[in-house]
Records
---
Amino acid sequence: MDGTGYPRGLKGKEIPISARLFAIIDVWDAITSDRPYCKSMSQEEVYLHILSQSGCQFDPIVVQLSIEVSKTFDIGQDNSEAA
């Protein structure tokens, strides 16, 4: 979001909305999945991590919307018992 990790130094609204959305989706997927080198984070840890990067790595508006949608639809929750 601040342009430090984005090609061509784009910042804020200069970064395409698709890229701002994908940034959160990519990190969300990575930290909620078990990896050979680390275990997945809990939903609460994910929310805290994403919120901690709001305004720096992630668009604050996209962060808020992503968390609201996740909580509304129980995205990332283990609903296997409900099936």
Note: The mean pLDDT is 86.
---
Amino acid sequence: MCKAAQAGKTAEQMMSNRQPADAIARLVSTIPMGRMGEPDEIAKAAVFLASDDSSFVTGIELFADGGRGQV
């Protein structure tokens, strides 16, 4: 069984790396949902894949990135 979660950038990551506001704005402009994810949103995707709720799911790569990986 193979499952993978691909996480997008979070606002906390960008702030902790002290990214300039224009760099953050450029990144956000490439995300179809128009915002960066929250850490708990990324965690919920990973927990789903690790849980029994995904027991019949296999061979997927779940993107938790606001749609950026599909553009």
Note: The mean pLDDT is 90.
---
Amino acid sequence: MGPHVGPSRAGYEADPDKRRDLRQEIHLQLWKSFAAFDGRCSLKTWTLRVAHNTAASYVIRERRVNAKLVSFEEIERSLESVEQLRDIDRDRALRDVQQVILKLKPLDRQIIISYLEGWMPLISPTSRV
């Protein structure tokens, strides 16, 4: 698995052991679906898509069993002040952001991760497309 797929896993699973399991599941799905790769997109794009879909399915399964999902608005209300993050060191801020992302509903999480990885501009949930 290339360097582009690995960092994404952290956005889907906080627990290191479960993250390793997710990596194995992504590898398995890539291997199982490689015969269906038809070259309509780059191998990198296809790999990211398979990894993303596998991770998204994993999160949906895990969330049904575990935690309550929340919306952007609920997260926004729960944060005291984004300004406080400026006073926290970079590693702590990244951990805090990761924890917030992990609380989002799958679609919201996918949008944020895509934005953070530079794949798309952020569109406000209240904006009209």
Note: The two ends are 34 Å apart (CA to CA).
---
Amino acid sequence: MNLLGIREPEIYGRTSAAELNQMLADYARSKGFALEIFYTNSEGECVDRIIKAYHDKVDALVMNRRLYLRSPRHS
């Protein structure tokens, strides 16, 4: 995500992670939701965050797990 808007913008678009964060925060605020945004390149940190969400009784968790998938294009 730290390369969002930079890496292959013709595929992934030109919106930066900071811009996306702001759009999400604005939308959540308009709907009365609390939003916490977390990025990591570490699988362990990701798992820790999922477990924390469980213990904190978080209502929803949205995750881009592309990092953990393999595809012929990126193998």
Note: The mean pLDDT is 86.
